[in-house]
Amino acid sequence: MTQLSLPVEDPDSFHNVSEKVKDKKKKRKSESKPEGKAKKKDKAGVENGETQKKKGKEKDMTIAEESERKTEKKREKKKKDKKKTKEKNLSEIKQEDDQTSSIIVKVEPDEDEDFAPAKKQNKGKKRARQEEATELSKSKKVKLEEDANETETETKPKKKKKIKTEEGKQKPKKEESDRKPKKKTQEEKEAAAALKIKKKEEEEQMRWRWWEEEKYEDGIKWKFLEHKGPFFAPPYEPLQENVKLYYDGKPLSLSLQAEEVASFFAKMLDHEYTTKEIFRNNFFVDWRKEMTLEEKMVITDLDKCDFTEMFTYYKGKMEEKKNKSKEDKLKIKEENEKLLEEYGYCAMDHHREKIGNFKIEPPALFRGRGDHPKQGMLKKRILPEDIIINCSKDSKIPEPPPGHKWKEVRHDNTVTWLASWTENVQGSVKYIMLNANSKLKGEKDWEKYEIARKLKHHAEKIRKTYRENFKSKEMKVRQRAVALYFIDKLALRAGNEKEEGESADTVGCCSLRVEHIKLYPELDGEKHVVEFDFLGKDSIRYYNKVPVEKQVFKNLQLFMENKEEGDDLFDRLNTPLLNKHLQSLMEGLTAKVFRTYNASITLQQQLQELTDPEESIPAKILSYNRANRAVAILCNHQRAPPKTFDQSMANLKSKIDAKKEQILLAKKELKEAKKEAKEKDSEKLNKVVESKKRAVQRTEEQLMRMEVQATDREENKQIALSTSKLNYLDPRISVAWCKKWTVGLEKIYNKTYRDKFAWAIDMTETDFIF
DNA sequence: CGAGGGACTTAGCAGGGGCAAT
DNA sequence: ATTGCCCCTGCTAAGTCCCTCG
Q1: Domain range spanning residue A501?
Q2: In the list A155, A313, A377, A745, which could disulfide-bond A139, CB 3.0-4.6 Å?
Q3: Residue A42: inside a domain, yes or no?
Q4: Which of A624, A728, A749, A753 is catalytic?
């Protein structure tokens, strides 16, 4: 217990958390920060050791030899898969005599030989799943287009019983431990639980198990696509008569257009944005464009505009909305659901797939991040005339809103989007695409992790190569090698070139400039230290001091010779060049794969290192979060400390103190009871002692849980775990870990994540290795 | 090549819903 | 039942990478 409450140093990484504070956050709120965590070992170094073993057989292979070996592997793999398929089909036939072996087992080409094969003990489960899938695919074949849902429900009742028994056998423990003791009657509890399970099952059955199907040929994303088109932002609601903008102290009535734009500004009055010079200027320029001639004549100075009445009005409206009666809120909720039902889904290859963003972005003032030169500009209202619809030829083409036309309707099945438009601030294209739980996104995600896994086998060779290249005669090669070293070791982003003045001044690896690094031949007892300080994506500050290899250090000195502030550190390098090189080292390799690879491999290692089999479930979860945190630190995923952080931390602390008191009290009571029992030795008193004992135990457990929570939260103050969880960590690592330690998956992944990673949850067993 | 555009992933923030404590 | 708080979800900006064209 005690070790849990100790501040545990971050087991890896050279990142000093305390120093990595978002610049803007610093300004906004320079509160006390947690003490910096001790920097320990070098992650890349650890990995090197780990993968060293594999090196032997790969060493000295030419690319040609290697690819030959690869194809051989593939062939082997295919053989294996064929066998698997056969087995699978066999087992199907055994169960369903009318089966026409409709299941096609997915053959994942990039799958590695170390992909976890199904364990024997799990056969029962596997088969159950297959049964389900078989039935599903059967119904899939039957149903076509419109009647999809009905067909589905028809096949359901039969299935349900079967699965229920299966499920019941499989997950009773988990389900029960999930439920928290409520003050409900036993029956109510059971009923609610049954409903929950039923719902879960239903969802499970509706799920398209695309990962068991064969992939389409290259480039084809779908064969049938039908949808309702996007949902447009509601029209502007004019201000109430008595609410005015004041100019130079005098009330003004604006034209509808100008008023709408003014309202965007007024609504943000309590936001820092409206105090920024650039934001105000950009807004004013664009606002004036919407004004009538007369308005333009009058309103010439933003400083003379008083929006407070409008601001108060909107604030009041918000308040009103919040305080609406239950029924009204329910009604709104229902309406939203109806909307989602109508616009939120599409039919893709005869499966109902959820759309990620079916609502068109409403007009607003552009909120660029960091020092964005375009912040405050008006993001215009999007009309159907701006929208390109993409769907299949034989689908029902979505209707534009009455009186409107689409810009274009096209039938391009090599792309995944359903609709697109060009946004006016940056001139970029925006899309309506599917939700993360869709086949299209899932398949890509899976592929991403498979490429990252493939890198595992090439990493050593690649590292060796770039180390050799540190000494290359060619400047280009040297720069490329050092950049790659940073990308690999520090998980930096590639760093594309950006047009100056179009967005905030942020950089990645290839676009680093001289002023972003400082070289220290010696610092704090370490040699060859590089200090990084630059703004990365989203203007999040990257600050890090890293000891590097001597050769790297020398090279950096060389690269910086005769350069001044503003000059590129890697002047002979850019991302296409780097990626082209990477492509030659391994098919599908690009700079970002290193981030995925290093994130996932770090999680796996950290989990291995931190998980103590003896510990309780909450302690294990803390270990998981710590492993996750190590990755988040590596990838520099930050967040603003929650506004109520200090407050809620203090609350938790006082609760812990209260718990401690309670334990003392309980212990005292126990002691007294014991004493009494010793003296009198009655049955009854012994029982009392027992119950007191249990009470102490219970309270201690509660305390422990709280303390774990407290450390977890403290360590998490300004680190965002979600980004890496969602985008960088192979979900199969987490699923396998949960299975191995019988930790409920829902403790790690919430509903959204479980949905997104359904493929991984379905296919992963405890022995998965990234 | 190198600019420019297109498609798709990755990112943090705001606000609301839902749940636990009172 | 009410309140307070936390997490989830939706939103959309900001990246990466690829393709095309001159």
Answers
A1: 440-593
A2: A155
A3: no
A4: A728
Tokens standing for A72?
């051989």
pLDDT 10s digits, A232-260: 999 999 999 999 999 999 999 999 999 99
Q: Which of residues 37-66 of A touch strand B (CB under 7 A)?
A: none
Q: Which of A387, A418, A435 is the last residue of a domain?
A: A435
What total number of domains does chain A contain?
4
Share of chain A above pLDDT 70, in %: 73
* Predicted confidence (pLDDT) per residue in A734-749, tens digit: 999 999 999 999 999 9
Question: Residue A659: what pLDDT?
Answer: 76
**Chain A 545-584 contacts with nucleic strand C (CB below 7 A):** 575-576, 579, 583
Element (DSSP H or E) covering residue A249? none
Do residues A334 and A408 share a domain?
yes
Residues A266 and A414 in one domain: yes
Amino acid whose CA is nearest the C1' of B9: A727
**Could you read off the pLDDT of A116-153 as tens digits, one per residue?**
332 223 333 333 333 333 333 333 333 333 333 333 33
Co-location of A74 and A102 in the same domain: yes
Report the alpha-carbon distance of residue A759 to residue A754 in Å, rounded: 9
C-alpha distances in Å from residue A764, one per residue of A134, A210, A333? 20, 15, 37
Q: CB A563: neighbour CB atoms within 10 A?
A: 14
> Is the distance between the Cβ of A495 and the closest atom of strand C smaller than 7 Å?
yes
* Annotation marks residue A728 as catalytic: yes
Domain boundary among A435, A453, A474: A435
Q: Are residues A344 and A297 in the same domain?
A: yes
The pTM assigned to this predicted structure is 0.73
Query: Is residue A18, in this structure, part of any structural domain at all?
Result: no
A58 falls within a domain: no
User: Edge-to-edge, what's the strand order for the sheet holding A541-547?
Assistant: A517-523, A526-535, A541-547
The pLDDT confidence band at residue A10, using thresholds 50, 70 and 90, is very low
Dihedral in degrees, nearest 10, Cα atoms A401, A404, A407, A408:
60
